[in-house]
Amino acid sequence: MDTQMQDGHAADQKDTVARALGWFSLGLGTAQIAAPRVVERLIGLNGDRQAVMRLLGAREVASGVGILAQRRPTPWLWARVAGDAMDLALLGRAFRAADARKARVAGAIAAVAGVTVPDVLESLRVSASRPVRVKASTTVRRPVEAVYDFWRDLSNLPRFMIHLDSVEERGDRSHWRATAPGGRTVQWDAELIDERPNELLRWRGSGQVPNEGTVRFVEAPGNRGTEIHVSLAYEPPAGELGALVAKLFGEEPQTQIKDDLRRFKQVMETGEIVVSDGSPAGVSAKQQLRQRPAQPLEVTS
Questions:
Q1: Domain boundary among 127, 143, 175
Q2: Whether 168 and 188 share a structural domain
Q3: Would residue 156 count as lying in a domain?
Q4: Per-10-residue mean pLDDT for the chain, 301 residues long?
Q5: How many C-alpha atoms does 301 have within 13 Å on its Cβ side?
């Protein structure tokens, strides 16, 4: 795929747990750097390991900044897990020291072990939540200019993209709405980040469904019209909304985008989506969901 999900998506899309862990790292690391002796005494050590404590604090600050600053904080979350393992090893060694306040060190070990659980769970969850990337192409027997102009008018997209309700242009940005199974509305904003008339459209979306993609328009060899090449990546959100988005875009997004392009080809070449007696409702792609079993033709005398 020639585009990737960017780090510059809206900050409000960052996972709440990851954000909390990032701020926790920043707070703990700042305390370890600014007051290492105090931190040591709080966890039951004798206060002669200030250099080590400051190094651990620098590690925590780096992890916190990485988690909060990056759209995909996975490496920094795993850095926290590694740091937890290091802290547990150091505390275990300190517990065996003759001068350690064992009750306080044991409490510190329990606290680090407790933080390790959300660190591991969040790292696993974020690692598993990867952008979905798909590609598809088709050839339309129409001139490049006509094909580009139709697609560039974003209000045309619901005519062949079955999951869309509407696309509303708002200056340099656009607002997209779709209805997931069960009637839940899913919406997001998008902006064009690259536009080359009759050649390319590239967009980036933010909101409930962070996404990014490219549509390329190329003259087909042999005067056969226009080749359309679509590359798309979207980032499924977590939780209930993520389940709705999965249903909205289908279990096989690769198949769905191919179907969208097939309908686009029909609209461009014939002016409508080809229907049968089993799907008689309208030219909007959404109407194709309102199907019925095909009926034999009525015979009139």
A1: 127
A2: yes
A3: yes
A4: 38 67 92 89 77 90 89 83 91 81 89 91 74 87 96 93 88 83 77 94 84 94 94 67 51 76 93 59 47 50 46
A5: 0
Residue 15 has phi, psi (to 5 degrees) of: -60, 140
Rounded to 5°, the CA angle 264-268-272 comes to 80
Is residue 32 packed enough to be buried (19+ CB in 10 Å), middle (13-18) or exposed (0-12)? buried
Q: Are residues 142 and 282 in the same domain?
A: yes
pLDDT digits (tens, 9 = 90+) for 123-159: 887 766 566 788 999 999 999 999 999 999 999 999 9
pTM over 0.85: no
Give the burial class of 73: count Cβ atoms within 10 A of its Cβ; 0-12 exposed, 13-18 middle, 19 or more buried: buried
- If you search the block for the tokens 């008689």, which residue do you land on? 280
Choosing from 79, 97, 127, the residue where a domain stops is: 127
Q: Is residue 116 located within the same domain as residue 206?
A: no
**Segments forming the whole domain that contains residue 46:** 10-127
**H-type alpha helices, the chain:** 16-34, 36-42, 50-69, 74-95, 102-128, 144-152, 239-249, 253-270
